[in-house]
Amino acid sequence: MTGSSALNFWNAYWSGTLMLFSHWAMNFSIQSVKPKSEDIGVSRDELSRALLLAFAATPLFEPFAIPLLLDKLSSSLPSAKVESFKYLGYCAPMYGSDRMAKHGGALWSSVKDVLYTSPESALSVESESDGGMIFEESDIMVEALILLEGLMQQNSDLLLDMILGDEDINNFICSFLKPWDIHDTPLQLRQQLHSVGRLLAVSAKSSMASCNRVFEKFFPQMMEALGCSVGNHSDESFATEDRALSSRFNYGTLYLCVELLDACRCLVLGFKESTSFPDFIHEKWCCMLHGFCRSLINIFFSNLEAVSGNAQSSFAYTGVKGLQLLATFPRSFAPVSLLLFENILLKLVSAITSNFDKKFSWGLELKALVEIGLYIEGYQESEKAATFARIVVDKFVSWISSDEPAMPLSLKMQAICETGMTGISNMLRIVQGMEKAISAKFTQAYVDGNFESVELVIKVLECYSARVLPWFEMNGGSEEVAWNLAAIIWDKIDNSSSVNLTVQNYELLGAAMTAMKQAVRRCSQESQEKIVNRAFRVLSASTLFPLKDSPFATSLSNSEDSYLNHHVDRVSCRDEWIISLYASVVIALRPQTHVQNLKMVLQLFIMALTKGHIPSAQALGSLVNKLPSKTNERHLSQEYGVEEAIDVILTSSIWNFCQSNTLRKCSLFGGGNEIHNTKCLAGLNHTSVHISAIVGLAWIGKGLIMRGHEGIKDITMTFLGVLLENTNNGDFPESCDPIEGKEQEVIPLMKSAADAFHILLSDSEDCLNRNYHSVIRPLYKQRFYNSVMPLLLSSTRQSNSIITRSMLFRSFAHVISETPLSAMISEANKLIPLLLDSLSTLTEDVMHKDVIYNVILVLSAILMDKNGQVAVLENAQAIINQLIGLAAYPHMMVIRETAIQCLGAMSELPYARIYPSRTKVLQAISKALDDPKRAVRQEAVRCRQAWASIASRSLHF
Amino acid sequence: MTLGLINANPVVHAKKERVARPLDDPHADDAVDPLEIYDYVRDIRDPEHPYSLEQLSVLSEESITVDEKLGRILITFTPTIQHCSMATVIGLCLREKLKDCFPAHFKVDIKVAPGSHADEEAVNKQLNDKERVAAALENPNLRQLVTECLYSSEL
């Protein structure tokens, strides 16, 4: 290339660049790109990014780009400012420090303008309680600070000269060196203080040299203002210094001081992460900090003490934050000696002990301790870890079993758990303490019902279930903790001979069962087997289990029924504990875990469930859900598969009362015309036993239905049998006097059979879910819906008794409200008439009100679903009539409200279809305007408006 | 001839935040209270301006009294200027709205605040005379104006 052609090229390039930038200058605010840029296929962000890359393409663009960007900073558009700062921040390292140096003054003045002159930070929500110094920075401020950080990295001397030499900043800091009250300070001053704090922090943490300069410039002044002196290192005691209190409560200085501490801590930790770790000890700032450290700690201590006196939360904030920062400086560099670290921990622990009635400062102090614990764990500081464990963790652990401090137990447990969660070693210490507490107090609580012990053990067990065990699961701890907990509880139960029955004892049992389930579900198969065997030994030693000479040991005999009734009545409290905990273990087992003596266990659970012991029923459900189905899947020693278990369960004589059903016959339902054995319904006692049996059968059915086992058919038939047998045989005609004793017995039985469908299909948190390793076949609810619906429908048609019909509809309502809508919506045209029938039948008895609500929710879901529209249109009149009736349903407000909402939704249907009902609806709604409940009235006004406006605005009808 | 606006430059106030009442409280006192009535009428549009009666401070919660037992509601509103010829239209809108929202057994009295209107007595008399109200609403122009104020989506 010749000289002239090179010159020509250069000229062309230059003029092209000029044109380009003048164009960009006009269109810079990327606002000019329409937000709706789908039409050109480029989003605003993409365009902005492309322009950013173009600006930063070469340092040669610097003379054009920087003035342009600086100019745009004066724009009044906030987004243009944000973009400019972003561009400057990105371009500065690309252009290099030499090129940027000449813009230093302009850059600083624009950053200062945004941060200091007119800061746009907003008080954060939680700022109320901390004295109003937690601010959320605006986007512009965030970008400006990022730019400042970048520039400081690039050329810290130049910028520091400007920042430290800035008169405004200097004067501002000087003005804050005097004591002042944060609460009397106007918001703008507080915003400026926050910004200056951020400026100093960004400057100080950019490099060692800048940190030195910032410290040299401001730190001595601050210390003087706070009345600090260089500490005497030989004097390790913390005698109260005789200093004017006012200087200790100089909030502005304290605030800036804490910001500086934070900055140099970040600087040190930043170096610690890199490989080269310079020697900080001789840095000026470190020496200064070292000198003033003791005095600073003293001041922070007095801030904490002030809290207990005057509840000055803003000082608590700086005090706690300062101490937390000083305690988390790396040990190797340490302006803070181990002794000072100990003192800080002691102070925080004593503050937590005494300040428990001040929620805000207590939370801060605990958070600071947790942060210190996390830091120690993260940076592997073994000496500090030992000190932390000794002073904080051990102290907190000692609280568990002692009455001191007089803090509410829930706060104690919160402090203990949160400190434990800082690291595995701390958590293990805590767990040890909790295990000891359970060992020591469990017997007292369980046997004597001692109130304090019960409360303590409940809290500790809850803590295990809700925090400790999940924490170990998340952090990969061993299963030992879970296993130990289960073992301790079983040991304690085994060693005690009797239990005192109190209300608290039931709460304790509930907590123990939850903890047991949570513990067992986290154990491996082997550990689970050990636990279940251990539990079985306790169970077999109990009075529940006369293994040798009980009728259970032999095959089912005629005397079983009487044995059950006799035995059930004398189940002691201790036995209830044992069987409940055993059931909890069984509920949480993995499918592979082998349960010994399964036949006896099954029979025992059957016995317990007749007494209305739900956990036993749930355990039976879990067993039939998880037992292997085929012989080859079975463990060699496994005596039972699911089929055998079902055989044992269903051949028990407790189901005799519903002999009409098809349990074990596997035949289809015969239409309810058989001769039924209703002898067992003779006494009320039997009725309650039979209700319990039905509930138990429902849980067993739930286990089967979830794994998709055929046995569910028989169980469903049983329920249908109970629903039908008592009325269709003529014993119970429609005209039956409701006061007659027979109805009193039969209705609860039928109701429980109807409600069994709810248990079958609803999701339970206590058992039979993924957490407890259940076998769940996909779409099992849909399958069940498809198979049970025809049966329910034919039974409803055949039934001629009001009560039977209403109970069948109750079952129907449970089924449809638990089945996913998508499974039902395709048959909406068949479903809607039934749904309306069920509503009209169920409204006749107040006991069905909850079920009605569920049905009306299904109806409203169908109304809202697009796929249900055709069916809704076909049945519009009938739906409207039914809804009008429900709008005046007297027993439940939400039913009226939902009915009126549904009516409102119906007004969207085509005009010709609904117009004939308009008058009727408006008349019904005007009555709802006078409803005693406001929510209904408001809904009625909306609905009335919607219906009135389908013809005209006029409400005349 | 086009008539100018009666109050060309009204003072517009900020809307108050809607207070959400606690839901599902079975013991809540659900009797009709002034706030409930105010919630129905606060968004009625002014006949002249695209602002609500609340924004123009024509109404406030305190200007409404209600006695549910006797079935009586009294609304006192303050026209923006003394000679406001729209006062009767505002009154008509209030009456029409309350008729939609409350059962027929409630007796609604609508008045202008004492001393806030030049023809206070005449306006009060007109607004509480059911014959005159019925006649006014049969006038198609007035009916349209009232409908627009009640169901306007301009706000």
TrEMBL record, chain A:
Predominant location category: nucleus
Pfam family, one: MMS19_N
Domain MMS19 C-terminal: 498-906
Keyword NAD: no
Domain MMS19 N-terminal, residue spans: 20-115
Coiled coil ranges: none
UniProt entry keywords in alphabetical sequence: DNA damage, DNA repair, Nucleus, Repeat
Intracellular or extracellular location(s): Nucleus
Assigned protein family: Belongs to the MET18/MMS19 family.
Role summary: Key component of the cytosolic iron-sulfur protein assembly (CIA) complex, a multiprotein complex that mediates the incorporation of iron-sulfur cluster into apoproteins specifically involved in DNA metabolism and genomic integrity. In the CIA complex, MMS19 acts as an adapter between early-acting CIA components and a subset of cellular target iron-sulfur proteins.
Protein name: MMS19 nucleotide excision repair protein
Species annotation: Coffea arabica (Arabian coffee)
Taxonomic placement: Eukaryota, Viridiplantae, Streptophyta, Embryophyta, Tracheophyta
UniProtKB/TrEMBL annotation, chain B:
Every MIP18 family-like domain range: 37-111
Protein name per its UniProtKB record: Protein AE7-like 1 isoform X1
Top-rank taxon: Eukaryota
Gene3D superfamilies cross-referenced by the UniProt entry: 6.10.250.1280, Fe-S cluster assembly (FSCA) (3.30.300.130)
Upper lineage: Eukaryota, Viridiplantae, Streptophyta, Embryophyta, Tracheophyta
Annotated source species: Coffea arabica (Arabian coffee)
Pfam families referenced in this protein's UniProt entry, alphabetically: FeS_assembly_P
Similarity remark: Belongs to the MIP18 family.
Stored InterPro entries: FSCA_dom_sf (IPR034904), MIP18 (IPR039796), MIP18-like (IPR002744)
